[in-house]
Amino acid sequence: MIKSRIRGGQGVSRRLREIQQRLTDQKRVYVGLPEGSGNSEDGTPLVVIGAINEFGGTINHPGGTKYGYRNRQEAEDGKVRFLKDGQGFMVLGETGPHKITIPERSFLRVPLRANQKEFAKAFRQIMPKVARGELTIEQALDQIGAKAASVSQEAISAGIGPPNADSTVRQKGSSKPLIRDGHLRQAITWVIKNPKELS
């Protein structure tokens, strides 16, 4: 706990600069999906799903996915769908090797950058409390981390463009990406570490 008595505007400014320097040298808050965040329902690590959505990517699919009609009505309507193994009314064929392009849907960088002024404002409000010994540096960073994680989660709930493809909407029931599997949204958190621990 930092305990100090500060008098005068220059003293306060100097002390806040010192605390800020100590803070950035010794501790930083990292927001996102830390190692060990868990897996999605199909077993894929959430950090992999998060990275693919955050930066986009290309999957080299080996092919072999069957397609056809799921039931008699869809056959009459001419609606061709991908079919799970052992399911479907009529199999028409299967896909060959192909690339699947996943667009970038940043749920971290874009919303966090868009709210930089809010984070700066919160930081300015918290730092005098650290200077007065009302909060530790870790507690201050904890508040900023909680705010940042909340911003990211709210961005997912609001919907991150581009919207899901029509085929994905039919499968998942929503045009909003990252909504159906709530595991990723819930796993977004923050950790406080010394930057040297990451190198």
Provide a descriptive summary of the structure in words.
The protein is α+β, with helices and mostly antiparallel strands. The chain folds into 2 domains: 9-59 and 103-198, no CATH class; 63-96, no CATH class. 46% of the residues lie in helices and 16% in strands. The protein contains 8 helices and 7 strands, in the order H-E-H-E-E-H-E-E-E-H-H-H-H-H-E. The protein has helices spanning 9-26, 46-55, 72-77, 109-114, 116-131, 137-158, 166-172, 182-187, and strands at residues 28-32, 57-61, 66-69, 81-82, 90-94, 98-102, 189-193. The chain has a 3-stranded antiparallel sheet. A two-stranded antiparallel sheet has the order 1-7. The chain starts with 8 loop residues before the first helix and ends in a 6-residue tail after the last strand. The model is unreliable at 1-6 (pLDDT under 50). Residues 165-174 have a biased composition (Polar residues). Residues 158-178 are annotated as: Disordered.
Coarse structural class: alpha+beta
Average pLDDT works out at 83
Number of E-state strands: 7
Largest sheet: 3 strands, antiparallel
Helix content: 40-55%
Percent of residues in β-strands: 15-25%
How big is the Rg?
A: 24 Å
User: What kind of assembly state do the chains in view correspond to?
Assistant: single chain
Q: Give the neighbour order of strands across the main sheet.
A: 4-3-5
The stretches of 5 or more residues where confidence is low (pLDDT under 50) are 1-6
Gross geometry: elongated
